[in-house]
Write a structure and sequence with these properties.
two-stranded parallel ribbon, elongated, alpha+beta, Outer membrane efflux proteins (OEP)
């Protein structure tokens, strides 16, 4: 009874696996409402909080540019005040009585404009630093978008790969169940042993175990894809994609040049070097004099001969400030800025070398995957032909159950190897776009 139950369960699971809904990527006709890679990347970009945070940081960087430019404009303030003085200076002049030199109630209102007249380029460098920060924020936002798109690509083709792998396993289980049926009939007829049936049942159990692992991994990938794209929980995901590819051979020199010019990590490292250079220039200007000017107009009392009357007044001045000694703070800031500039330069050089190495590695991976596709094509053709011959020979009693099981397993392994090679080629293609800075979102 236990063996019959095991066999019944195996047949049921095999039927379920055969009926497993395949993604649109492996269908010949497009399905309405299917999720394409482009749509998945678009949804991920719309719903990801990290990208929204990056956009806000870009707005903040733009606001800092506006703040830095404020140094080019005068700072205008309005003030008003009241002061009560008691006693005040006074003097007696004969019969004229006591004369006050200032009132007890003092009122003062004025508008003042202050501005920097000369700072030897400090304001310009401050604006340059803010503009560099804005460019860095732009590159960081693009980098976050690229990494999110790359994660979406991995999940998209990972799900397609798992669906195809499940399909291969389901076909193997179906073939193994047919072999089990033949072995059972032969066992009942006395032309096969119990070991033949047990061998088929063990192979089916192993295929079912692999199927369960694939299903679990598929569920994990779908949960992550839903989180990235904002799709509803438990909503079926129908993907429109394909592993039908035509291997190509990209130019190594062209890919290297493109990576050096367009890769976002390089743009960000170069912008960091630019910012460090501007900071050093600012630090070197710390010891220079600064000339500021101010002009104010207002009304106040306290002027003779009528000290209580409110009268208009104008004041203007020029102020020179020259730092003579800052407790070695200025020299320390200059040394720090110089060291940070050298560090930024070394990081930029490292990023350039890494970009070149990444291109070489990915191009080699593309070539390897392309060769694998060619070799696995031949392996699949040979394995299919061997499986057809083994089935015919087994049905005619010219092959053992073990021979049939081995050929079915070889066919499944060849098909999975071919699928793996195509998957590696596609992922290496997108990786090449990623490391060369090509936009794929």
């Amino acid at each position: 009874m236990r063996k019959r139950g095991t066999r019944t369960a195996a047949v049921a699971i095999a039927a379920l696996m055969v009926a497993w809904p395949l993604p649109a990527a492996v269908a010949k006709e497009p399905q309405p409402g299917a999720l394409t890679l482009e749509k998945a990347i678009e949804l991920a970009g719309q719903n990801n909080p990290a990208l929204k945070a990056g956009a806000e940081e870009l707005r903040a960087a733009d606001a800092r540019v506006t703040q830095s430019r404020s140094g080019w404009f005068p700072q205008i303030t309005a003030t008003a005040g009241y002061t009560r003085l008691d006693p005040v200076s006074e003097m007696s002049f004969g019969g004229l009585g006591m004369i006050k030199f200032m009132p007890n109630d003092n009122y003062d209102t004025k508008v003042t404009a202050r501005g920097t007249l000369l700072d030897f380029g400090t304001r310009g460098k401050t604006v340059d630093l803010a503009l560099s920060g804005k460019k860095a924020a732009e590159h960081s936002l693009q980098l976050s978008h690229r990494e999110l798109s790359w994660q979406t690509v991995q999940l998209f083709y990972g799900i397609l790969f798992l669906h195809e792998s499940i399909k291969v396993e389901a076909e193997e289980i179906t073939a193994l169940n047919k072999a089990l049926d033949f072995a059972t009939k032969r066992y009942q007829a006395g032309s096969a042993t119990r070991f033949d049936r047990l061998s088929a049942e063990v192979r089916i159990a192993a295929a079912q175990r692999r199927m369960l692992d694939l299903q679990h991994e598929l569920l994990r990938n779908e949960v992550t894809l839903r989180r990235l794209t904002g799709l509803k929980d438990h909503e079926p995901i129908a993907l429109q994609g394909s592993f039908g590819i035509t291997p190509t051979s990209p130019s190594e020199s062209g890919a290297r040049e493109q990576a050096q010019q367009q890769r976002l990590e390089l743009k960000l490292s170069r912008e960091s070097e630019t910012a460090a250079s501007v900071r050093r220039a600012l630090a070197m200007k710390k010891g220079l004099p600064v000339v500021t000017g101010s002009v104010s107009w207002g009304v106040m009392n306290g002027f003779q001969p009528n000290i209580d009357a409110m009268r208009g007044n104008l004041a203007a001045g020029v102020h020179l400030e020259l730092p003579l000694f800052t407790g070695f703070r200025t020299s320390g800031e200059q040394q720090e800025a110089t060291a940070l500039l050298r560090a930024a330069t070394l990081r930029r050089v490292d990023a350039e070398e890494q970009a070149t190495a990444d291109v070489e590695e990915i191009l080699h991976g593309l070539g390897t995957a392309s060769e694998k596709i060619k070799t696995t094509d031949a392996e699949v053709k040979q394995a299919r032909l061997a499986a057809e011959h083994a089935r015919a020979r087994y049905e005619n009693g010219m092959a053992t159950t073990l021979d049939l099981l081995n050929t079915e397993a070889s066919l499944s392994q060849a098909e999975l190897a071919q699928l793996q090679a195509k998957y590696e080629y596609i992922m290496n293609s997108y990786t090449l776009k990623r490391v060369t800075g090509e936009v794929f979102w």
